[in-house]
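for ur thesis appendix - Barstar (barnase inhibitor) domain-containing protein. copy paste whatever u need, i formatted it the way the template wanted (i think)
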Amino acid sequence: MNFLTLAERLARPEPPWLYRADLVAEAQTLQVDLGTPPELTIVCFDSATMTTLDDFFDVVASRLSFPDYFGHNWPAFDECLADAHEWLSVGALVLLFVNSEELLSRDRADLPTLFTVLVKVGIELARETSEGEPWDRPSVAFHAVFDVGIETRLEGRELPLLSM
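the 3d part is after this line
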């Protein structure tokens, strides 16, 4: 799969929401403009700086410009992540995690919750909201990509391998 096809796939609001990939060498390449759809924003995280849940919340909140009222807990993370496309002004958001074997390595019990929230946000953002209200929005693509070091099971299923 070439990069443009990969970018186009990640810009679509459709499952799977989570992938694993060999990102160690490709992480910087993915951030270079190689014909990436303009609505696609890729935010890269070094999981080595996110070994605890507190570190994780701090880093993500900072990089995604979460509001000051972010409560540093799973419900607040879910809510802010689902709304991040608004203040980031993106039509597609990809969270790219390198050094994934370190992600929540000191709080491993929280990893399944992270996966669950990411899938929930992907499903929620994929649904267009058109009720004639100020919060109406088109569907937004959301994906999280982890390098191959991550524990690859989610609810008994392998995270799909994303070909580069």
